[in-house]
Structure formats: structure tokens, C-alpha cells
Amino acid sequence: MDDEWICGRLGEDEPWVLGAVNPPVFENSLFTFATAQALGEAIRNEDERYVYWRGTNPTVDLAQRKLAALERGERAKCFGSGMGAISATISSLVSAGDHVLVLGAVYGPTTQFLRYLEKFGVTHTHVGDLAEGDSAIRADTRLLYFESPSYMAYAVVDIAEVTGWARERGLVTVMDNTWSTPIFQKPLTMGVDLVVHSLSKYIGGHSDLVGGVVVGSSRLIRPLALTEYQLYGAAMSPHDAAKVIKGLRTLPVRMAAHQERGLAVAAFLAGHPGVRAVNHPGLASHPGHAIATRQMSGFSSLFSIELATESREEVATFLDKLRYFRIGVSWGGFESLVNAPALSTEESVRATMGIPVGLVRLSVGLEPADTLIKDLGLALEGMGRLA
């Protein structure tokens, strides 16, 4: 079963769909049963049976089945947000007194959540590579969390090497795969235990939903679904699940277009005198390009550049002069977006992630690449000395 079939047709020809070209949206908050015994059996297996919206729902279940199949995982659980998925996943794997290793730069709110867990006796340490991991690992370390490509810097790690290292030390691995989507990278096939995604980005694809998912083995997903998912209450709505299903239908086509446009824009910026560095794993000049081409089948269009400036004011001027790139915090939709961490991220977080003042994140959308390149060129020229 290939990815395009999974995205477009998996589960959509079953009897419950009744031949509808768009799978039904089940809006009911609860399901009833013919007998008390049937209700009791369903409640005992609420992670797989339809009892109450907070547990699962046929529309949400279809989205979960598709996402699990795409990642080559046994099961998936959808949440009301990406952070809902991340916080529930981490919580399911640690207890008071445990320690978490974080490899490389990760999504800012993930770090904030790990700091929040300190009040419950869960500590964490950020490390830059596995050599630092060897020094930082402790007897109470339980979890290794990472992204590849990494947050903002888009550094690439050898996933098989990382998971092998973690397995030898008895650690569970969790990886955020939002950047690549399952179309371009499948971490579970390289030894990762659990994969998380923000569904708000490429998978949704239209900037009209907030959602998250965790994918992995039934052994790890079932207790999470019965405990953290139920207790935290970050349930995905059936309407958002329907948007996920629609987004998946065009995901392979959209990712191919994002890749083409992203690489064209990145190549232009890589040759511009006003840009010190372009952090795009799809460029041959990227330090992790060889590893990326080995473990990924393509590249998304989210990357960062470092402007040749140390001035926050000049960074802000660059953003303000753009006309087609909109200024915003998210990514993965049709529209091209730009953001600068130095203008919004607290200094301590930026220092932890090693983000320079001149770093600007670009999300290349589906507008014509020539239009976006012209927009960036004019903005750079408008900054005077960066031209």
C-alpha cells in the first residue's frame, strides 16, 4: 500500500462511509448501547471502542488510521493541538524523579513544557550531540527527545545512529517529524519509538485547523490513549479530523510543490551577499545534506537564513519590506510566511537554541517561486547595506 493510496483512499470505501465521496463527520458526543454489558465492555476498551467523544470517534479514527499507516506505525492518537500530543506523550513516558535528554534544538513550547515538569520532579538536559549525551546521561534518564531537521537551525541528525545509541542505554525515543511529514521521512522505520506531529502545518495544509498526533506501537499508544489522552482532555474534534482527512488527500502533491519552490528560493538566497547562511537540508552546501538524502525522500519548504546583520532593527526592517511573505508564526499552508525569533523569543530560550540575531525563518508557500524571489530581493535591497 503506497502513500498516495493511504492519503486518498484508505478506509474511505468501507460500508460505514455509505459511498459518500467525503467520509461522514460524526458530530455526536456519545454513543449508546443495547445492553449494560455491552456498555461495560466498551468502556473497558475505550481506546478502541466508540463511547464518548473524549475517547474516540469514527471520523477521528479514520484520520488516525491514515496517519498510522503513513508513518508505518501500528496506531496513532490525534489530539486537539500539537502541544496536546507532545505533552501527553512525554507525560506518558516519565514519572517523578526521571530525567529527559533533549538532543539539539526543539520546538520552543516543548522546552517550556519540560521546564514546567520540573515542579513535578522531572528534569531535563539539552545536549548538542551524542558525545554530550554520553556525559549528560544519568541513571534516571528515561527519554531522548529530538527533531530532525531541528527547530529553527534545521540541523540533521542520523536517526538510525541516534536510536541505536538510545536503545543501547535503555532510553525511549520520541521524535517530532512535522518538518518532513511522513511523505518525506518515516522515523519509525529507523528505530524511533514514537513520532509526534503538529497537524496544523503541512498535513492540514490550509491554516484552518489546530491539531496534533502521536504514532507508534500499540504497546506505547494504548496506555497513553487510556490515561493522558483521557485525563488531559485535548481531544480532536470530528470537524478538525475531517480537515485532516481532506488535507491528506492532497499532501503528496502539495509536498512536491513545496519542495520545488522551497529549493528555488533557498538557492537564490544562498547566492545573495546580504545573507550569511541558508539553513536548508536540501542544499548540497548544508552540513547534513548527505545524511538527509540517505534518510529522507524529499524536503519541505521551511528553512532559515541568517542575515548579514547584528541589528534587531534591520531584521525588523527586512520583514516589514516584504510584500508577498506575510509575517506570522506558523507554517505549512498555501501562503508564504516569515518570522524572526530575535524579535519575539525570550533571550534565554534563544541562547539555549543558539539562534543568532539575524536568523529569519521562511515558510515558502505555493505562490510562484519567481514572485517570492523578487519579493525577497527587493526587501534585501531596501535594507541598503545588505544589498
TrEMBL record:
The modification N6-(pyridoxal phosphate)lysine is found at K201. CDD domains: CGS_like (cd00614). GO terms for cellular component: cytoplasm. It comes from the Bacteria. Its cofactor is pyridoxal 5'-phosphate. The keyword Lyase applies. GO terms for biological process: transsulfuration. Belongs to the trans-sulfuration enzymes family. This is homocysteine desulfhydrase.
